[in-house]
Amino acid sequence: MFLLQIPEAELDIIQKDQKLWVWDIIRQKHVILTPEEYVRQELIHYFVEELGYPKSRIGVEKKLEYTSEISKRTDIVVYDAHLNPWLLVECKSTEVMLNEDAWAQIATYQSILQAPYLALCNGIEALIGAKNQQTAAYELIEGFPMYPN
Q1: Which domains does the chain have, with CATH numbers?
Q2: What angle do CA 42, 48, 54 make, to 5 degrees?
């Protein structure tokens, strides 16, 4: 686990119906600004503005069919140039510790998506794993990977 040190994004926040809303540059709409959404939006801006991830390759809150009866929503999935899942990110609010329960949640999504990179982030800390091609296990790395060209 490492401390997340990303520049604070200039988020477009408005107040409507006595709630705060933030403009999502991926979904192209205002969404309610929850603590988890704040972390998600900060990461999206970091990916696009600092790491050069193409906006067109980022999916936010996409439905994922786990079984015929169970579906979940992924927080962020970054796709490679062939539109294969490349980085799967689970966002938590700053009050949530990154622990085995959170890792189990992302592992559930990973069992379907098979992305070579996984990340858990609460806005303060991040756990980022890269898949070892020989062992198929995920090894912790420091920092988010650069987008593949």
Answers
A1: 2-141 (3.90.1570)
A2: 140
CA-based torsion, 136, 57, 102, 41: positive or negative: positive
The model's pTM is 0.91
pLDDT digits (tens, 9 = 90+) for 41-79: 999 999 999 999 999 999 999 888 776 777 788 999 999
3-state SS, 13-76, equals EEEECCEEEEEECCCCEEEECCHHHHHHHHHHHHHHHHCCCCHHHEEEEEEEECCCCCEEEEEE
Distance CA 7, CA 15 (A): 24
With CA atoms as reference, report the closest residue to 145 among 112, 110, 115, 113: 115
